[in-house]
Design goal:
Length: 242
């Protein structure tokens, strides 16, 4: 065995260098750098207005940064926004087909078939999107993000509207994707979820990246004994004036 890691383990699937974004006088993101590697699950946590959505949108290429650069060794990046533009009058399959064409997927029909099967929606293909439960609608959102078989998938608060069982299913699905090599980054306000389904967590506060590391490392950074990861996170914010 070679002593050095294979190149694809060293080269990040997606990297950002010093991303800055301003909205008028407000700095939503301040010199944020990060790397996302194949098979990694990265949770982005931070208070309301911290810049999580802004960061994910820039990484996804749907919002331009004012400064900084994005380096993607990857094929396309999949994007699952919090409020996706789905068509409630169209069926599940029609929505997928529409987005497959929009994204100029090589073989739209085949891609739709694969996504329906992968997300467990095959038996809902002809159902009107507006009639689906929140959990199934979220599966459609994710299916759309995955249509182009991206090497990196970015999700903004993917579990926000789900009940505990749907939430668990969602994470099983996302963890399996990561297990097959997809690099995954997501935002969440559910800190326990970030601990459970985050190989690494990024803490974003007022547009600044204040911490990158494992959940255990964050607990180690805050002094004293903390009950759980959520308490450690709150103390971390408190110690930094939040
Ligand atoms: N289109 C916009 N125009 C003006 N200001 C914006 C815009 N989008 C975001 N902002 C501001 O940028 C900052 C970061 O917002 P962002 O939505 O990225 O935060 P967030 O961490 O996703 O918050 P939340 O947890 O509430 O979703 C906030 O101060 C927000 O008001
Ligand atoms: Mg947000």
């Amino acid at each position: 065995m070679a002593e050095t890691a294979a190149p694809d383990q060293l080269t990040p699937t997606l990297a950002a260098r010093s991303l800055t974004k301003r909205f008028d006088a407000r700095t939503a993101l301040s010199a944020v750098s990060l790397e996302l590697h194949a098979g990694e699950l990265v949770a982005i946590i931070g208070p309301n207005g911290a810049g999580k959505t802004t960061l994910l949108s820039i990484l996804a290429g749907v919002l331009p940064a004012d400064e900084g650069e994005i380096i993607a060794s990857a094929r396309q990046i999949g994007w699952v926004p919090q409020q996706p533009a789905l068509y409630s009058k169209l069926s599940v399959a029609e929505n997928l087909r529409f987005f497959a064409r929009l994204e100029q997927v090589a073989d739209p029909e085949a891609a739709v078939g694969v996504m329906l099967a992968e997300t467990g929606l095959a038996n809902r293909a002809d159902e009107q999107l507006g009639r689906l439960s929140g959990g199934n609608r979220q599966r459609v959102n994710i299916a759309i993000g995955l249509l182009s078989e991206p090497a990196a998938l970015l999700l903004d608060e993917p579990s926000a509207s789900l009940d505990p069982r749907q939430r668990e299913r969602l994470w099983e699905f996302i963890a399996a994707l990561a297990g097959r090599g997809t690099a995954v980054a997501y935002s969440t306000h559910n800190v326990a979820e970030a601990e459970r389904y985050g190989d690494r967590v990024l803490v974003l506060v007022d547009g600044e990246l204040l911490f990158t590391g494992t959940p255990a490392e964050l607990q180690g950074v805050v002094g004293g004994d903390v009950r759980d990861f959520e308490s450690a996170f709150l103390r971390f914010l408190h110690e930094r004036g939040n």
